[in-house]
Specification:
single chain; 376 residues; alpha+beta; four-stranded mixed β-sheet; four-stranded antiparallel β-sheet; 10 helices; globular; binds flavin-adenine dinucleotide
């Protein structure tokens, strides 16, 4: 159960959990039993009740031992913190222990064809019918919707003058009648993305998290956690500068216009920036200690923006270091792991809110400059 962790060995949990090896299942159970999949959550909800400092120590020790994270889960990194902050006792009891133990897999239904950066334009409607909400609409770019058990999503429950008003944050079971999931074919042939169509999908009104009609506040808080998790996740595996330099020095040839010296310089600069970014990440982790308090928007946007840039630069350097044939297919007609990671890193500046949107937030919240109100 040591790093590196190839994508196809990740454990996502859920009703139809796939374990690539029995040890992966055992590792998840051992960690979950100690509450270490969600170290800072209260013990009664499947966590270990650790303070932020203790959780940081646990994280450092796990990294030092090169341990793999036992579970990858939107529930752990995004929905869980939201339920702790906005959920009712009943919602916390119902969902959190299952999330911590990897028994439930979630997807995120925010984006729509006309609502990406401009998330307040969400059009998927939820109409009250006594104690039920009836959902009709269309989500897009929903990662792993075809594998998820449940979705947390943003729906419009009322038409108000301000687009941010009249939205609710809703949990729904993906096996509910009226939900159609269609994977989106990507150029790489693989697909994590789906479109999700809702036609008169009936969901209990008690599945709204937070105050009905105030889903924008809940969604914005979730986005902060998403940005933090992207910032952490994209740089999670440890990279030694020596390994990168060895790769550069050992390259038989480099792409035209790239010199070995210039590439070594870039690698050293990248590593220094990476170190500064890790320190900033620790400062924000301290800010995030109190689950009752929202981390300021600006911090998570700075982290998300810098992490996307840093991760893209990392894979740019590694791709260059593998020479002019780096994007060629191998004998099995596949790209190398570096080439796949390089392609995947392109999405870092789009997912969870684009880099331009993060710069807008930083301009507005940190620098006091004017910016549009309803962006992510
Ligand atoms: C890997 C990946 C995973 C994703 N997973 C999910 C998921 O699970 N669930 C989900 O709901 N969504 C998901 N998304 C969608 C993602 O959140 C959106 O793609 C993103 O918010 C941008 O929205 P859009 O694609 O509609 O682009 P648009 O909003 O149309 O933006 C197009 C371009 O215009 C720029 N732009 C837009 N508005 C402004 C502005 N005000 N100022 C400056 N520039 C602006 C953008 O930066 C971008 O370059 C995922 C995306 C990726 C890449």
């Amino acid at each position: 159960m040591r790093l590196p962790l190839p994508d196809d060995e990740l454990v996502w949990g859920g009703r139809n959990a796939v374990f690539w090896h029995p040890d992966a299942k055992r590792w998840l159970h051992l960690m979950a039993d100690k509450g270490w999949t969600a170290p800072q959550w209260p013990k009664e909800f499947g966590g270990a009740g650790l303070t932020a400092e203790e959780a940081e120590v646990l994280d450092e020790e796990m990294r030092r031992l090169d341990c793999r994270p036992p579970l990858k889960s939107f529930g752990l990194t995004m929905l869980g913190p939201i339920l702790l902050q906005y959920g009712t006792e009943e919602q916390k009891r119902r969902y959190l222990p299952d999330i911590a133990a990897g028994r439930i897999r979630w997807c995120q239904g925010f984006s729509e064809p006309m609502a990406g950066s401009d998330l307040a334009s969400v059009q998927t409607r939820a109409i009250h019918d006594e104690d039920t909400l009836v959902i009709t609409g269309h989500k897009v770019w929903t990662s792993y919707a075809h594998k998820a058990d449940w979705m947390y999503c943003l729906v419009r429950t009322a038409r108000e003058a301000k687009p941010q008003d009249g939205m609710s944050f809703l949990l729904l079971d993906m096996s509910t009648p009226g939900i159609r999931v269609e994977p989106i074919q990507l150029i790489s042939g693989r697909s994590i993305f789906c479109e999700v169509f809702f036609e008169n999908v009936r969901v209990p009104a008690e599945n709204v998290v937070g105050t009905p009609g105030e889903g924008w506040t809940v969604a914005k808080s979730l986005l902060r956690h998403e940005r933090l998790s992207i910032a952490r996740g994209a740089g999670q595996d440890r990279v030694e500068l020596r390994e990168v330099i060895d790769l550069i020095d050992g390259a038989a040839s480099l792409p035209i216009g790239t010199s070995r010296e210039a590439l070594r310089d870039r690698a050293v600069t990248w590593m220094m920036e990476e170190h500064a970014l890790r320190l900033l990440q620790q400062r924000v982790a301290v800010l995030a200690q109190d689950p009752e308090v929202d981390i300021p928007d600006g911090y998570t946007s700075i982290l998300k923006y810098c992490r996307a840039k840093s991760n893209q630069e990392r894979w740019d350097i590694l791709l260059d270091a593998t020479g002019p044939g780096s994007l060629a297919l191998n004998d099995q007609n596949e790209l190398s792991a570096i080439a796949r990671n390089w392609l995947r890193a392109r999405g870092n500046s789009i997912e969870g809110g684009t880099s331009e949107i993060q710069l807008n937030i930083i301009a507005k919240r940190m620098l006091g400059l004017p910016s549009r109100e309803n962006s992510r």
